[in-house]
Amino acid sequence: AQKVTQAQTEISVVEKEDVTLDCVYETRDTTYYLFWYKQPPSGELVFLIRRNSFDEQNEISGRYSWNFQKSTSSFNFTITASQVVDSAVYFCALSESRDGDMRFGAGTRLTVKP
Amino acid sequence: DAGITQSPRHKVTETGTPVTLRCHQTENHRYMYWYRQDPGHGLRLIHYSYGVKDTDKGEVSDGYSVSRSKTEDFLLTLESATSSQTSVYFCAISDPDRGWNSPLHFGNGTRLTVT
Fold this sequence. Notes:
heterodimer; A: 114 residues; 6-stranded mixed sheet; globular; B: 115 residues
Protein backbone atom coordinates (compact mmCIF):
# COMPACT_ATOMS: atom_id res chain seq x y z
CA ALA A 1 0.00 0.00 0.00
CA GLN A 2 1.15 3.49 -0.69
CA LYS A 3 2.14 5.72 2.21
CA VAL A 4 3.63 9.16 2.66
CA THR A 5 5.37 10.31 5.82
CA GLN A 6 6.12 13.90 6.68
CA ALA A 7 7.86 13.57 10.01
CA GLN A 8 8.13 17.29 10.65
CA THR A 9 4.82 18.46 12.04
CA GLU A 10 5.83 22.09 12.49
CA ILE A 11 8.89 24.12 11.55
CA SER A 12 9.60 27.69 12.52
CA VAL A 13 12.35 29.76 10.90
CA VAL A 14 13.34 33.39 10.68
CA GLU A 15 13.03 35.17 7.39
CA LYS A 16 15.91 34.59 4.94
CA GLU A 17 16.80 31.24 6.47
CA ASP A 18 16.83 28.18 4.23
CA VAL A 19 14.45 25.39 5.21
CA THR A 20 13.98 21.82 4.02
CA LEU A 21 10.72 19.93 4.31
CA ASP A 22 11.14 16.17 4.38
CA CYS A 23 8.95 13.65 2.58
CA VAL A 24 9.44 9.88 2.68
CA TYR A 25 7.20 7.57 0.72
CA GLU A 26 6.45 3.88 0.43
CA THR A 27 5.27 2.13 -2.68
CA ARG A 28 5.55 -1.26 -4.34
CA ASP A 29 5.06 0.15 -7.80
CA THR A 30 7.94 1.02 -10.07
CA THR A 31 5.86 3.70 -11.75
CA TYR A 32 4.45 6.46 -9.61
CA TYR A 33 4.16 10.20 -9.25
CA LEU A 34 5.08 12.49 -6.39
CA PHE A 35 3.58 15.89 -5.69
CA TRP A 36 3.90 18.87 -3.39
CA TYR A 37 0.99 21.13 -2.51
CA LYS A 38 0.89 24.33 -0.49
CA GLN A 39 -1.96 25.42 1.77
CA PRO A 40 -1.57 29.04 2.88
CA PRO A 41 -3.51 30.41 5.85
CA SER A 42 -6.37 31.32 3.53
CA GLY A 43 -7.03 27.59 3.17
CA GLU A 44 -6.86 26.85 -0.54
CA LEU A 45 -4.65 24.05 -1.82
CA VAL A 46 -2.15 25.00 -4.47
CA PHE A 47 -0.24 22.56 -6.65
CA LEU A 48 3.52 23.15 -6.67
CA ILE A 49 5.23 20.31 -8.49
CA ARG A 50 4.80 16.82 -9.94
CA ARG A 51 7.65 14.38 -10.45
CA ASN A 52 7.48 10.90 -11.98
CA SER A 53 9.46 7.95 -10.72
CA PHE A 54 11.65 7.80 -13.81
CA ASP A 55 12.94 11.31 -13.48
CA GLU A 56 15.33 11.77 -10.57
CA GLN A 57 16.67 15.05 -11.81
CA ASN A 58 16.38 17.73 -9.18
CA GLU A 59 14.28 20.73 -10.02
CA ILE A 60 14.64 24.38 -9.14
CA SER A 61 11.98 27.02 -9.49
CA GLY A 62 13.07 30.36 -8.13
CA ARG A 63 13.61 29.96 -4.38
CA TYR A 64 12.06 26.48 -4.43
CA SER A 65 13.97 23.29 -5.13
CA TRP A 66 13.11 19.63 -4.93
CA ASN A 67 15.45 16.71 -4.30
CA PHE A 68 14.11 13.32 -5.43
CA GLN A 69 16.12 10.28 -4.34
CA LYS A 70 14.71 6.86 -5.13
CA SER A 71 17.47 5.16 -3.13
CA THR A 72 16.06 6.65 0.07
CA SER A 73 12.44 6.98 -1.12
CA SER A 74 12.51 10.66 -0.40
CA PHE A 75 11.24 13.75 -2.17
CA ASN A 76 12.39 16.72 -0.12
CA PHE A 77 11.47 20.34 -0.66
CA THR A 78 13.82 23.22 0.09
CA ILE A 79 12.94 26.88 0.29
CA THR A 80 15.93 29.17 -0.01
CA ALA A 81 15.90 32.58 1.67
CA SER A 82 12.48 32.01 3.16
CA GLN A 83 9.92 34.79 3.26
CA VAL A 84 6.91 35.44 5.46
CA VAL A 85 4.65 34.62 2.50
CA ASP A 86 6.04 31.09 2.52
CA SER A 87 4.20 30.45 5.78
CA ALA A 88 1.78 27.64 5.02
CA VAL A 89 1.10 23.96 5.45
CA TYR A 90 2.93 21.92 2.85
CA PHE A 91 1.72 18.50 1.76
CA CYS A 92 3.64 15.80 -0.02
CA ALA A 93 1.57 13.26 -1.98
CA LEU A 94 2.03 10.02 -3.89
CA SER A 95 -0.01 8.55 -6.70
CA GLU A 96 0.52 5.04 -8.02
CA SER A 97 -2.50 4.37 -10.16
CA ARG A 98 -4.00 5.67 -13.33
CA ASP A 99 -7.18 6.75 -11.58
CA GLY A 100 -5.31 9.37 -9.60
CA ASP A 101 -5.93 7.95 -6.14
CA MET A 102 -3.50 10.25 -4.42
CA ARG A 103 -2.23 9.65 -0.87
CA PHE A 104 -1.17 12.64 1.16
CA GLY A 105 1.21 13.02 4.04
CA ALA A 106 0.00 14.66 7.24
CA GLY A 107 1.56 17.96 6.23
CA THR A 108 4.27 20.22 7.65
CA ARG A 109 3.28 23.61 9.00
CA LEU A 110 5.98 26.14 8.16
CA THR A 111 6.05 29.46 9.98
CA VAL A 112 8.43 32.11 8.73
CA LYS A 113 8.93 34.92 11.21
CA PRO A 114 10.01 38.39 10.15
CA ASP B 1 -7.54 29.06 -11.35
CA ALA B 2 -9.59 25.96 -12.06
CA GLY B 3 -13.32 26.65 -12.01
CA ILE B 4 -14.41 24.66 -9.01
CA THR B 5 -17.17 25.80 -6.70
CA GLN B 6 -18.09 24.09 -3.48
CA SER B 7 -21.33 24.73 -1.65
CA PRO B 8 -22.05 25.44 1.07
CA ARG B 9 -18.77 26.89 2.35
CA HIS B 10 -19.78 26.39 5.96
CA LYS B 11 -22.40 24.22 7.55
CA VAL B 12 -23.39 23.29 11.07
CA THR B 13 -25.68 20.33 11.47
CA GLU B 14 -26.89 18.01 14.17
CA THR B 15 -25.96 14.38 14.66
CA GLY B 16 -28.20 12.07 12.72
CA THR B 17 -29.27 14.53 10.04
CA PRO B 18 -28.52 14.02 6.35
CA VAL B 19 -26.11 16.45 4.68
CA THR B 20 -25.24 16.95 1.03
CA LEU B 21 -22.23 18.86 -0.17
CA ARG B 22 -22.00 19.99 -3.77
CA CYS B 23 -19.04 20.40 -6.06
CA HIS B 24 -19.49 22.12 -9.41
CA GLN B 25 -16.76 22.45 -12.05
CA THR B 26 -16.63 24.36 -15.30
CA GLU B 27 -13.48 22.67 -16.67
CA ASN B 28 -15.18 19.61 -18.17
CA HIS B 29 -12.66 17.38 -16.40
CA ARG B 30 -13.49 13.71 -16.27
CA TYR B 31 -12.19 12.92 -12.79
CA MET B 32 -13.61 14.38 -9.61
CA TYR B 33 -12.73 13.64 -6.00
CA TRP B 34 -13.89 14.25 -2.47
CA TYR B 35 -11.27 14.52 0.27
CA ARG B 36 -11.53 15.33 3.93
CA GLN B 37 -8.84 17.20 5.83
CA ASP B 38 -8.23 16.54 9.51
CA PRO B 39 -5.32 17.56 11.75
CA GLY B 40 -2.62 14.93 11.80
CA HIS B 41 -4.06 13.08 8.82
CA GLY B 42 -3.52 15.38 5.89
CA LEU B 43 -6.07 14.81 3.19
CA ARG B 44 -7.80 11.48 2.85
CA LEU B 45 -9.78 10.35 -0.16
CA ILE B 46 -13.47 9.62 0.46
CA HIS B 47 -14.83 8.83 -3.00
CA TYR B 48 -13.93 9.64 -6.54
CA SER B 49 -15.58 9.59 -9.94
CA TYR B 50 -14.02 8.85 -13.31
CA GLY B 51 -17.08 9.77 -15.33
CA VAL B 52 -20.82 10.28 -15.20
CA LYS B 53 -22.35 7.60 -12.99
CA ASP B 54 -18.94 5.98 -12.50
CA THR B 55 -17.76 6.27 -8.92
CA ASP B 56 -15.54 4.35 -6.57
CA LYS B 57 -14.60 4.26 -2.92
CA GLY B 58 -11.53 5.85 -1.44
CA GLU B 59 -9.64 5.31 1.76
CA VAL B 60 -12.34 6.59 4.17
CA SER B 61 -15.67 5.95 2.43
CA ASP B 62 -17.72 4.54 5.32
CA GLY B 63 -20.69 6.78 6.12
CA TYR B 64 -20.50 8.62 2.80
CA SER B 65 -22.14 8.22 -0.57
CA VAL B 66 -21.69 10.12 -3.81
CA SER B 67 -23.50 10.73 -7.03
CA ARG B 68 -22.51 12.13 -10.38
CA SER B 69 -25.36 12.60 -12.85
CA LYS B 70 -23.59 15.29 -14.88
CA THR B 71 -19.95 15.87 -15.75
CA GLU B 72 -19.91 19.16 -13.90
CA ASP B 73 -21.49 18.11 -10.60
CA PHE B 74 -20.29 15.71 -7.91
CA LEU B 75 -22.37 15.39 -4.75
CA LEU B 76 -21.20 14.03 -1.41
CA THR B 77 -23.88 12.84 1.00
CA LEU B 78 -23.63 12.01 4.66
CA GLU B 79 -26.74 9.91 5.19
CA SER B 80 -26.72 10.36 8.97
CA ALA B 81 -24.05 12.76 10.14
CA THR B 82 -21.86 11.88 13.11
CA SER B 83 -19.47 14.01 15.13
CA SER B 84 -16.53 12.12 13.63
CA GLN B 85 -17.49 13.60 10.27
CA THR B 86 -16.74 17.11 11.48
CA SER B 87 -14.04 18.12 9.04
CA VAL B 88 -13.07 20.30 6.12
CA TYR B 89 -14.15 18.73 2.86
CA PHE B 90 -12.35 19.44 -0.38
CA CYS B 91 -13.49 18.67 -3.86
CA ALA B 92 -10.82 18.22 -6.52
CA ILE B 93 -10.70 17.64 -10.25
CA SER B 94 -8.14 16.32 -12.66
CA ASP B 95 -7.98 15.67 -16.36
CA PRO B 96 -6.20 12.37 -17.06
CA ASP B 97 -6.55 12.99 -20.77
CA ARG B 98 -3.79 15.56 -20.33
CA GLY B 99 -1.41 13.01 -18.93
CA TRP B 100 -1.44 10.21 -16.50
CA ASN B 101 -1.80 11.41 -12.95
CA SER B 102 -2.18 15.03 -13.81
CA PRO B 103 -2.25 17.28 -10.73
CA LEU B 104 -5.36 17.77 -8.68
CA HIS B 105 -6.98 21.18 -8.62
CA PHE B 106 -8.98 21.86 -5.49
CA GLY B 107 -12.05 23.82 -4.56
CA ASN B 108 -11.97 26.17 -1.60
CA GLY B 109 -13.37 23.64 0.82
CA THR B 110 -16.49 23.20 2.95
CA ARG B 111 -16.18 23.38 6.71
CA LEU B 112 -18.71 20.99 8.23
CA THR B 113 -19.44 20.88 11.94
CA VAL B 114 -21.63 18.12 13.34
CA THR B 115 -22.91 18.89 16.85
